[in-house]
What does this fold into?
Amino acid sequence: MTTSLPRQDRIRRAIELLRHDTTDKFDDVVGFTAQEFIDPVLAQEERDYVFGQVPSIVAHGSEIAKPYDFLTVTMPRNNVLVVRQKDGSVKAFVNLCRHRGALLEQNEKGRCRFFSCAYHRWSYDPDGSLRMITRDNTFGDIDRSAQGLVELPCEERHGFIWIIDNAHASINVAEWLGPEMDTILAGYHLDELTCFRAAGFDEPTNWKIMQDAFLDGYHIQYAHPNSAGKIIHTNVMAFEDFGRHCRFIAPRKSIDRWLEEDPGDQPLDPYVTETHFLLPNSTLLRQPDHFQLLTFRPHPTDPTRSRMEQRLMVPPVEASGLEQSHWEHRWDKNWQILLTVLHNEDFPLLRDSQQGMGSADAGGMLLGRNEVANQVFHREIRKLLAQGRAAT
Ligand code: FES
Ligand SMILES: [Fe+2]
It folds into this structure.
């Protein structure tokens, strides 16, 4: 495993691995148990010590591009309302009215100059401050500044909106990413791309089973023999471990032309997909001409359920040189291909895995030395849980 070689050299390393029919590996296999996917106590710890402590991505900035654009998201600990402010910054709040606790904003997305509660019509400004109490003389002289929306730590960086799902935490995304991943993401200029489409899927599967499947270069030819398996090599990963986050290059089959012949100075980018794991719950896929983000979030109460979100980040139509209809057609096609593979091939397998994990006598299971990114994911989640337990 190497770190921070120039990209063309990292791709050449993937070619070398392919030539020798091997992959980067860890030294040991790692065990895990079925309990980790069904235990409600562990699920509570994950909500508090993972999502309540560290930043995770909730959207691409272009999804709420203009002032007063908002979106809502169900995080593991809070219902959240994310609002683009008048000055262009982004704030996140607990999506709950401070009168009697009604869900303040019901819609998934929209634009709103003030948020008005459906129950007794208290209203709030986009910056979260309490704007109006209906029949306010009946409340008398209360401290209005104490009844604004509860703010959550939120930061926009590298084009994405990040939140820590805990009003008492403070956020520093650069520090969380660390120098390597922060520099890598900065180099992608993701803020110059636009989110072509975002969609979420509620699945009867623990979030870690879901996340594991999208860090896995080992299942491709077996689970996807007629789709991804035809395009991407199985179990060939040129891997870099940054200690918290990681990334790996997987060669496409089109790269085979360079197995015999030296590619010389040919740019090799079109022949690979690069997968980034952003702890705690995202896979960012760098494709030759766009990015895909896959995010996995635990259900607020049930360890056997989760929500996956899929996003496609592409050059905006003006920058693409394409006509609007071509641009839409092109990315729509791309979106549908990914969606079909997920829904027809991955999701059914993963639902069945969850069912299997409910077996009382499941026995221990293993992550192979080749399952490098999965090992990082399991290792780092365990670390966060241990830190959380030690702090309480
Ligand atoms: S609960 Fe929102 S105004 Fe009463
Ligand atoms: Fe898959």
Remarks:
- The mean pLDDT is 96.
- Residues 97, 99-100, 102, 117, 119-122 surround FE2/S2 (inorganic) cluster (ligand 1) (CB under 6 Å).
- DSSP finds ten helices and 20 strands in the chain.
- The chain has two domains: 1-53+179-391, 56-170.
